[in-house]
Write a structure and sequence with these properties.
CATH topology of the largest domain: L-2-Hydroxyisocaproate Dehydrogenase, Chain A, domain 2
Number of helices: 10
Order of helices and strands: EHEHHEEHEHEHEEEEEHHHEEEH
Length: 304
């Protein structure tokens, strides 16, 4: 990929930029922020790690939206982060305002770009980004399930003592307290986790997954998570840049899949060089269907 722009060089944006540059996922990486000096300083700091990590990606910082011109991918990490005691949805009004101005810039300077939304509430912002740009739904998608599934896998590894490399998990639904971790699809090297953990422990880990972001926020007090989101973003970017056709849980615009339409929500998708190319529909139990429907209702209410 020739050019990627990250809008919002805060902690998530900066960590994401470092991983993308180090992995050489593009030739030019633009950090776009409100404060020119600070943004240029962050970009220069990352650029000076190039000899250490051995990458040739050119990292630049700017405050002028024109810097995103002809970007292949725009990653939106701008907006207010959560504070202790806040839910992701408490941020909706302020962050939609920020997103709206960026959407106008994207349509003007990068009309052919794909758009990856990271800022919370990610389901609602992904939906509004899609409506605001008018882009095909495959080109607008958001971070959620990759991060939530990584948290769930981490908790299973810590609980069982087995290598996290062998653990596969899947989380769908809204990116919030109503997310739907699918324990039935979780396994350790292909073996269902209920062979290793009893029902009560699995339910405890599911609840831990739902509260994973809030737990980090409460412990850090002054910031929300940024290392794990950045790593998750990089996994998605790698899948798109290298056209890997990976099946990853992401926020996607649904058009009838899972019985839902005109909504953005976490589902398994095939990520390719075209973006969220295809939604994978899984057979769900009655309880899983009910949980997903409840999660969708919450997302839809906030969208309205």
């Amino acid at each position: 990929m020739k050019k990627i722009t990250i809008v919002g060089p805060g902690r998530v944006g900066e960590s994401t930029a470092q991983i993308i540059a180090k992995s050489e996922l593009c030739r030019e990486l633009v950090l776009l922020g409100r404060h020119e000096g600070k943004t240029k300083g962050i970009a220069l700091d990352i650029q000076e790690t190039a000899p250490v990590f051995g990458f040739d990606t050119r990292v630049v910082g700017d405050a002028d939206p024109a810097a995103m011109t002809d970007s292949d991918l725009v990653i939106f990490t701008a907006g207010l982060p959560r504070k202790p005691g806040m839910s992701r949805n408490d941020l909706v009004d302020s962050n939609i305002t920020v997103l709206s101005s960026v959407v106008d810039d994207i349509k003007r300077y990068a009309p052919d770009a794909m758009l990856l939304i990271v800022t919370n509430p990610v389901d609602i912002l992904t939906y509004h980004a899609w409506r605001g740009t008018g882009f095909p739904r495959q080109r607008v998608f958001g971070l959620s399930g990759v991060l939530d599934a990584a948290r769930m896998a981490s908790f299973i590894a810590l609980e069982t003592g087995y290598s996290v490399k062998d653990i596969t998990t899947l989380v769908i639904g809204g990116h919030g307290d109503a997310m739907v971790p699918l324990a039935r699809y979780a396994c350790i090297n292909g073996i269902p986790i209920d062979q290793f953990l009893d029902a009560a422990t699995i339910e405890r880990l599911i609840e831990h997954t739902r509260k994973g972001g809030a737990e980090i926020l409460a412990l850090k007090e002054t910031s929300s998570a940024y290392d794990s989101p950045a790593a998750s973003i990089a996994i998605m970017v790698d899948a798109v840049v290298r056209n890997r056709r990976r099946i990853l849980p992401c926020v996607a615009i649904l058009d009838g899949e899972y019985g839902e339409k005109d909504i953005a929500m976490g589902v398994p998708v095939v990520l390719t060089s075209q973006g969220a190319e295809h939604v994978v529909e899984l057979p769900l139990t009655e309880n899983e269907i009910a949980a997903l429907f409840s999660s969708a209702q919450q997302v839809r209410a906030h969208i309205k």
